Amino acid sequence: MDRLIGLVPLPYPLAVVAVGTAVLGFVAGTLGPFAVLRGRSMFGDAMSHGTLPGVVVAFMVSGVKDPVASLVGAAVFAGLAALLMIGLERAGRTPPDAAIGIVLSASFTVGIVLLTRVSQGGDADQSGLDAYLFGQAAGLVVRDVELALWLGGLAVLAAVAALRLLRSATFDPQFAAVAGVPTWAVDVASTVLLAVAVVLGVRTVGVILMVAMLVAPAVAARQLTTRLSGMVALSGVIGAVTGVAGALLAGRTELPTGPVIVLLATAAALASILFAPRRGVVARLLRRRAAAAL
Amino acid sequence: MNTDALVVVLTAGLLATACGLLGGFLVLRRQSLMSDAVSHAVLPGIVLVFLLTGSRAALPTILGATAVGVACVLGFEALRRTGLVRSDAAIALTFPALFSLGVIGVSRFASGAHLDLDTAIYGEITFAPLRTVAMGGLDVPRSLLVTGPAAVLTVLLVVLLWRPLQTSTLDPQFAEIVGLRGRLAQRVLLVASTAVAVVAFDNVGAVLVVAFFVVPAAAAHLLASRLGTMLILAVTIGWVSAVVGHWAAVRLDSSMSGTIGLATVVCFALARLLAPRRGLLWRRSLKARTALSLRRMQ
Predict the structure, then answer these.
(1) d(CA A111, CA A216)
(2) Do B272 and A211 touch (CB under 8 A)?
(3) How far A225 CA sits from the closest chain B CA (Å)?
(4) Residue B14 is part of a domain; what is its CATH number?
(5) What is the mean pLDDT of residues B29-52?
(6) How high is the pLDDT of residue B116?
(7) Which pairing describes strands B138-141 and B132-135: parallel, antiparallel, or unpaired?
(8) For residue B268, what pLDDT is reported?
(9) Which residues of A touch B252 (CB under 8 A)?
(10) In 3D, which of A33, A17, A34, A44 has the Cα closest to residue A212?
(11) Residue B51 domain-assigned?
């Protein structure tokens, strides 16, 4: 790991942050398209808010701020939030977007009530948990990067290996069901993958901005390609590049990292929507004008 | 109940009134998450007004932040209309960017005592009784001076625009045919929701905005079959949550905004389980009773 970081021509702490944000951006970018294409972009928002009670509960159970314990707690609660949303949707009457809002409020209020309890105990460094809201890329250490590399790498590999299944379940759920694909299993699996991306990314950009890390690279990539495999790869690259560029830019200008990364990723998405070769707004306008001239 | 408690409960209840009424329409129109998006997107507006005027006076803050919130909604609409981005992705693209601008603005220009991100998110309803304005020899809490008019104006708006709002929500095509200006109603609804979200953000924090807009309305949606009943129920659930949440927060010594928000969630869970005909437990017991009577008949 240290050798990989040594390859980066930057001072050591900065290199750790750069490699870390690249890995996290890549993981979120690769897994984002599966949520965006299914119309579940805001799932990520509720899931990232769901990590808050998870981290606090992990802290209450283990009594120390252990990165692995808080990761597990966050993952479990993000997964629970996702299952709750799917369950509310299935139970009927409540529209899907309202289900997202309810789960988001539930996880966030539970998180805050628990957080106030922990901070009253006096044995907690509350600021550590506070940093969770807005992320703390500068606080990344080698161990975090290793963890992200392993876990995120596994998730990305799983997504690539199951690309055909995910593709049919994403684009044509009815066909997939008829063709014998266990759609609920695919649902659970893609939710777990999303949870991994959210849990890893939340540390860098924070609970509130995490959803942009999933959605913005995917939207940018969508305008540039018409194939799912191409979109996933491109989205991962855009996520990694905006991650690194944002972290370095934030370090140089002494601005908070998460917001800078998010603004860069959003700029990439907007640029892609405007200037994409075929689908882009400008290309379409030019085409329409050319057609009118004929 | 002492005066401080009364101020907190009244502030939360008045906001719940405004949010519940508008939230009912948003939930039915499948625009619930607009409240989430706008409540985050107004942060740069608040920061901008603070930078320009150097103060956090209520009126300019509300006007400025509402303008940014409306800009967020327009940006979202423009993105959606390109046909390249689905509406949920458009929301997820607009509000984090605006919130990022707000966070950068706070950390760069307004860090310190004037704008505190944590309290903006967690809410500072606990301090509502402490910030007062002298009026006619009386110390009136600032929060009531803002939330009171917000609630009254929202009730007026819903009463005056009842027909267009109701029809365009339940049957948009019919509203267009009979000339009920559905798009105007939609715009008025969005601007009003944005303004109320700003007021709520400023007084009780972002946590309660989504909880108040979506959760009571969704709970009422499970209990009622008529729009009027649903809205009244949503407001009632909001007030019950304010009272119960405040009581629980004092008993448990925990976050006031968090506990009030949690109370709305508990109300929703109860409605989801026990609502007549639609509740999950009700349905199950109905199934069991039907099976029993069927077996008796055999």
Answers:
(1) 26
(2) no
(3) 12
(4) 1.10.3470.10
(5) 86
(6) 63
(7) antiparallel
(8) 96
(9) 113, 117
(10) A44
(11) yes
Q: Encode pLDDT of A262-271 as tens digits.
A: 999 999 999 9
Nearest CA in chain B to A88: B272
pLDDT confidence bin for B112, thresholds 50/70/90: low
pLDDT score at A146: 86
The answer to whether residue B135 sits within a structural domain is: no
Structure confidence by residue, pLDDT tens digits, B128-164: 777 777 777 777 787 888 899 999 999 999 999 998 8
A with B: how many residue pairs have Cβ under 8 Å apart? Answer: 174
Domain ranges, residue B70:
3-130+140-297
Total domains present in chain B: 1
Task: Catalogue all structural domains in chain A, each as residue range(s) with its CATH number.
Answer: 2-207 (1.10.3470.10)
At A244, the amino acid letter reads V
Q: Which stretch of A3-12, A67-76, A202-211, A250-259 has the lowest confidence by average pLDDT?
A: A3-12
User: For residue A125, what pLDDT band results from cuts at 50, 70 and 90?
Assistant: very low
Smallest Cβ–Cβ distance between A101 and the set B33, B79, B103 belongs to B33
Q: Which long-range contacts (CB under 8 A, 24 or more apart) does B264-267 make?
A: B264/A105, B264/B211, B264/B212, B264/B215, B264/B216, B264/B219, B264/B237, B264/B238, B265/A102, B265/A105, B265/A106, B265/A109, B265/A110, B265/B211, B265/B215, B266/B241, B267/B215, B267/B216, B267/B219, B267/B237, B267/B240, B267/B241
**Residue with structure tokens 């992705």?**
B89
Contact across the interface for A113 and B117, Cβ inside 8 Å: no
Contacts of A130 in chain B (CB under 8 A): 118
Q: Is B139 helix (H, G, I), strand (E, B) or coil?
A: strand
Question: What is the value of pTM for the model shown?
Answer: 0.89
Nearest to A105 by CA among B95, B57, B218: B218
Nearest to A108 among B100, B207, B253 (CB): B207
pLDDT of residue B48: 85
Phi, psi of B133 (to 5 degrees): -120, 135
B-chain residues near A219 (CB < 8 A): 85, 89, 93
Q: Is the pLDDT of residue B177 over 50?
A: yes
CB contact under 8 A, B218 and A98: yes
Which among A101, A120, A209 has the least Cβ separation from residue B214?
A: A101
Q: For residue B25, is it within any domain?
A: yes
B213 band by pLDDT with thresholds 50, 70 and 90: very high
Residue with the larger pLDDT of the pair B33 and B180:
B33
**B110 contact residues in A (CB cutoff 8 A):** none
